[in-house]
Design a protein that fits this description.
Blueprint lengths: L5 H17 L4 E5 L27 H9 L3 E5 L9 H8 L7 E6 L6 H10 L3 E5 L6 H6 L4 H13 L6 E7 L7 H11 L2 E6 L15 H16 L11 H13 L11 E4 L5 E2 L13 H7 L12 H4 L5 H12 L13
Parallel strand pairs: 1-2, 1-7, 2-3, 3-4, 4-5, 5-6
Antiparallel strand pairs: 7-8
Helix pairs in contact: 1-12, 3-4, 8-9
């Protein structure tokens, strides 16, 4: 995974440090639409929704000015279903290059042209959902032909040399045995990989949680192999501490101490603030402090260890060190270019 250039790195560190001190969010997830092109077995989104009240692209400037995140996730639903998604990204990105902006997508709608337009608009990282290293992915996502689409497009875009594509694999009971095969696929495609953890809170279904000792043993074996494969290319994006906490989350059937609403939060498609995507207490933009006092200070939920949380449930020194060591660089940023 390519590293962030020095000047931008210093801006991220500066804003992140200030946000930590004054209790502004480090990461904000903009759910820009509730509609989705897939019907995933582990998700409560799926299919078309009423998008008539979605924020307009220019509205996002106000949210970025108010919340001042150093990292933004552009997610959904499926964000690429918005025909104005490039304009949304342009309005999120400040002239300074902040916030570091991640597009979280299933890539059903991705093309080379759209990839280049989004990179030019300010997407720093493309996070692509992958549940299986083969066509079982189509069945899990409810979208025939998706794996073949990814197999053709991702290696082609990887050859552009931007090194900004990350496969995001949510660990479930269905795919825990495939953790290293998905890493093999990332290597073969020339991209990076990141692991997150399934939560039953989203759908109420515990079938995809790791419920049995044999599944936990398999998780440990697979993640032990992943740790042994690390190298200086940073292609395994998760830190060791994050994967260790992922193990404990499944072992303990939960993870207390969540900082939702404080260190991270969600902005819904219609512009309300939520502590996370699975806590439906909603607040207007100007009432984030009330959200912290009413929810974050008393939050006892331990039912997830999703990726947005897993990167922030750490002491500030550890968070700072892991990001400086893993993601910041003295090298200039590559400009997007076409494969044609």
């Amino acid at each position: 995974m390519r590293k962030v250039p020095l000047a931008e790195s210093l801006r991220i560190i500066g804003r992140g440090s200030l946000n930590w001190l004054v209790e502004r969010p480090i990461v904000v997830s903009f759910e820009v639409t509730d509609s989705c092109s897939c019907y995933c077995k582990h998700c409560d989104h799926g299919g078309p929704r009423d998008d008539s009240r979605n924020l307009k692209p220019a509205d996002y400037r106000r949210y970025v000015r108010e919340l001042k995140p150093c990292v933004v996730q552009v997610s959904g639903g499926e964000p690429l279903l918005r025909p104005d998604i490039v304009e949304v990204v342009r309005n999120i990105k400040e002239p300074t290059g902040l916030p570091y902006t991640i597009l979280v997508s299933n890539w059903t709608e991705m093309t080379e042209q759209k990839y280049l337009e989004l990179a030019e608009a300010g997407i720093d990282q493309f996070s692509v959902s992958l549940d299986f290293p083969d066509r079982r992915h189509d069945d899990f996502r409810g979208y025939p032909g998706l794996f073949d689409h990814l197999s053709e497009l991702i290696p082609r875009l990887a050859k552009l040399g931007r090194d900004d594509i990350v496969l995001n694999s949510c660990i479930t009971s269905a795919n825990v045995a495939e953790i290293n095969r998905m890493a093999d696929l990332a290597r073969a495609w020339g991209v990076n990989i990141c692991y997150s953890a399934y939560t039953p809170r989203r759908t109420g279904c515990r079938d995809y949680f790791l419920n049995w000792p044999k599944e936990i043993e398999l998780l440990h074996r697979e993640l032990d192999r992943i740790e042994a494969r690390r190298d200086d290319t940073n292609w395994i994006v998760n830190s060791t501490s994050t994967l260790d906490e992922t193990r404990r989350y499944f072992e303990n059937r939960g993870a207390p101490g969540c900082s939702a609403g404080l260190r991270f939060l969600v902005v819904t498609a219609d512009g309300r603030l939520q502590p996370c995507s699975m806590q439906f207490k909603r607040y207007p933009l100007g009432e984030r402090r009330r959200m912290i006092e009413e929810f974050s200070r008393t939050n006892s939920c331990d039912e997830c260890y999703v990726s947005i949380r897993s990167y922030l449930d750490k002491s500030f020194p550890r968070l700072l060190w892991e990001n400086v060591a893993g993601y910041f660089s003295f090298k200039p940023r590559l400009e997007p270019q076409s494969s044609r």
